[in-house]
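Postdoc handover notes: sequence design on the structure in folder B. Input tokens:
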């Protein structure tokens, strides 16, 4: 029976993609589905990847514009990472983290501590970004319970944020539509404004907007009570919210308010960590802050194996060790915590990053941003913004009102469809296109990417005019 199933699987792969599409429609539940198509849809089938490229079911070669999901940092088909997976699986495929450990996880924790800012010294490994944020929040709750402050549990988050899909992490999300039909721990979360300069009140300068954000944060702490707020969780750059780069100095000022009020600052670097901004971590090297915890995932293995984690301040751990509750149990763990294969892959991935990929990312980032910025010449484009090798092209119906195409919320999907036809995969987000290619992208490949995106937007403008949706 097993042999028959294996033959059938091989036949599906060899026979082409029609079988896979039909099987998916019958048996596969896709992430983020709509009720009208849940369990009955198939999405674009990808056959293989190589460098910055992927190949779809028809054999079309596409630039992987989103690098998978912000994660294929060193590119597809890196033999070094594949060999590490094989070698580690043959040596030790798994060990229970409840009463044993493995060497790759210990070594990876040491190297992460070496790269982290401030006194961040210890890592708890998870399976991805959602479980990393969930772990950070549960640790905050445990920390305050042990310290005799059971009421200090509220979490500050922001509009436009995305922190995961587990119950607590998803409760922090502030993007449109994420929570329309989903429940969350709303009683634990206090929402603040998004730090998006493009969407600041009309007539307000960027420095004044920064002051507004900081004042709002300080006023919220005073109104809610610092004795009730356990943590602030924030992405250095709001990634899935549209690559929102905060105003200069904003994060430092928020960090200072957190320190003054004994509020744990959790920097969510699931996207920005491991090279996306040219450094292992962006919190210290790019934004000059030293959080109490940093969450990470995605680029830590360049997407080759599911792995994430949270790095914790030595100060917090020392306070727990000195408490008068030495028997208090942090009752939290995952079957795949500190997975030996994932940690081994992450170690080799870190080697690749430090052996030239990070430097290349820093060198090519200004060119990447400048070339994308030229798309603001197109009347449909309201703003191109970004930092490092992550950027967002935001489309608007009218530049004065910054109307995000109220008549056509799926303009990003239209652009993506045209770009797919032309050889580029785009990450469409309602009226935005997000670009975060593998860090190994060359100048010539950046030129190709921007040229295709320009043509895709131009074709979309033509479509919108013909349909009477937009005049331009």
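Designed sequence:
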């Amino acid at each position: 029976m097993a042999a028959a199933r294996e033959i059938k699987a091989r036949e599906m792969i060899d026979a082409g993609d029609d079988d896979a599409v039909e099987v998916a429609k019958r048996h596969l539940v896709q992430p983020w589905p709509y009720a009208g198509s849940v369990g009955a849809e198939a999405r674009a089938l990808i056959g293989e990847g190589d460098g910055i490229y992927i190949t779809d079911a028809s054999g079309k070669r596409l630039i992987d514009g989103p690098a998978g999901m912000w994660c294929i940092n060193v590119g597809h088909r890196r033999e070094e990472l594949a060999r590490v997976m094989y070698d580690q699986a043959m040596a030790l495929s798994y060990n229970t983290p409840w009463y044993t450990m493995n060497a790759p996880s210990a070594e990876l924790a040491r190297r992460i501590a070496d790269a982290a800012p401030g006194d961040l010294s210890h890592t708890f490994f998870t399976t991805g970004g959602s479980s990393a944020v969930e772990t950070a929040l549960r640790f905050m709750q445990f920390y305050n319970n042990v310290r005799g402050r059971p009421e200090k549990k509220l979490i500050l988050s922001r509009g436009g944020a995305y922190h995961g899909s587990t119950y607590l992490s998803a409760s922090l999300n502030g993007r449109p539509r994420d929570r329309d039909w989903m429940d969350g721990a709303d009683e634990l979360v206090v929402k603040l404004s998004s730090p998006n300069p493009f969407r600041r009140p009309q007539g307000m300068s960027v420095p004044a907007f920064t002051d507004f954000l900081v004042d709002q944060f300080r006023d919220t702490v005073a109104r809610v009570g610092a004795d009730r707020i356990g943590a602030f969780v924030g992405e250095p750059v709001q990634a899935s919210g549209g690559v929102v780069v905060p105003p200069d100095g904003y994060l430092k000022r928020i960090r200072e308010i957190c320190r003054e009020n004994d509020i744990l600052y959790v920097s969510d670097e699931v996207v920005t960590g491991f090279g996306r901004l040219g450094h292992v971590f962006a919190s210290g090297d790019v934004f000059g802050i030293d959080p109490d915890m940093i969450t990470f995932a995605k680029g830590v293995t360049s997407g080759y194996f599911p792995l994430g984690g949270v790095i914790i301040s030595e100060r917090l751990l020392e306070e727990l060790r000195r408490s008068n509750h030495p028997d208090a149990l942090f009752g939290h763990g995952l079957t795949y915590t500190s997975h030996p294969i994932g940690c081994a892959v992450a170690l080799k991935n870190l080697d690749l990053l430090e052996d030239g990929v990070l430097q290349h990312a820093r060198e090519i980032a200004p060119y990447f941003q400048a070339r994308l910025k030229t798309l603001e010449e197109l009347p449909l484009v309201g703003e191109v913004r970004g930092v490092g090798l992550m950027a967002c092209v935001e489309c608007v119906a009218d530049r004065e009102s910054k109307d995000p195409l109220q008549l056509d919320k799926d303009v990003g999907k239209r652009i993506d469809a045209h770009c797919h036809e032309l050889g580029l995969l785009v990450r469409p987000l309602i009226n935005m296109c997000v670009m975060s290619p593998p860090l190994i992208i060359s100048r010539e490949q950046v030129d190709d990417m921007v040229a295709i995106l320009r043509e895709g937007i131009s074709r979309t403008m033509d479509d919108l005019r013909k349909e009477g949706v937009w005049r331009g």
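Context for whoever picks this up: Confidence is low (pLDDT under 50) at residues 5-10. Don't rerun without checking with the PI first.
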